[in-house]
Amino acid sequence: MPCPWRPRPRWPERAGRNMATYFHFAPAVALAVAAGTRTVGWRLMLLGAVCAVVPDADFLLVWLRFDPYSGTYGHRGFTHSLGFALVMGLIAALWRRPAPYSWHQRGLAGLYLALCTASHPLLDGLLDAGICNAWLWPLDGTRHCLGWRPIPMQHVALWGWVRLGTEMLWIGVPLVLLANGGMALRALHRRWRAPIRLVSQPVATGVKSVGFGIRPNLPDVRETRFFRERKETNRRLQRRRRVEAMDWLGRELRTRRISQGAGAAWDE
Ligand SMILES: [Zn+2]
Question: Of 182, 211, 225, 232, whose CB count within 10 A is highest?
Fold first, then answer.
């Protein structure tokens, strides 16, 4: 879809009227909530919020007349591309201290920051106002518009309640749903992988009666450590009781024989 944007008079000053949204930081928070605090800590979340806002720093390049507003290095140019997001993620993954973090954690942090950075051009691209993004930089510096730009911002002033309300409806609500969806999925995953708790009645607790419904990937109850230990203890206990019983029997027989013998001797 060709970009319909044309420079207005007195740009770049006036052209930036529809540039920003208040909610650029919000995807970072929503993704962090969805992923959970173990995956994304609050420091990483703050960094994600910075990454989600930083693409608009390209205004400096326009202001310094490095490139015109609609150039590859102008507003919504290379910083609003998927390549830029990828570079940010890679830098973050390599930058993170290697000592306490595994490659897996560093990769996850890089992925999170890349997603935060990519959320910026996505939000900008969904607004129906303003110039389009150079999505494919560094492969292609020209602007490409999304086929669907539903957020109505054309006649909304940069500051004010109307803009805030529109953004809350079109950006805030989907992000709240995203965060809650992530939380629900994590809760479901936790329930699914939770071990069976065998506290007092290991035999009475069936596999299918624990939690909700049938969980096919659970280990057999008889394989759990608690049950094995209990079985061991039972076996040892039975052996001891058997020995005790035999001792008792032997004692009884001996005393009876003696008493019987004594009685017999007395009777005689
Ligand atoms: Zn932007």
Answer: 182
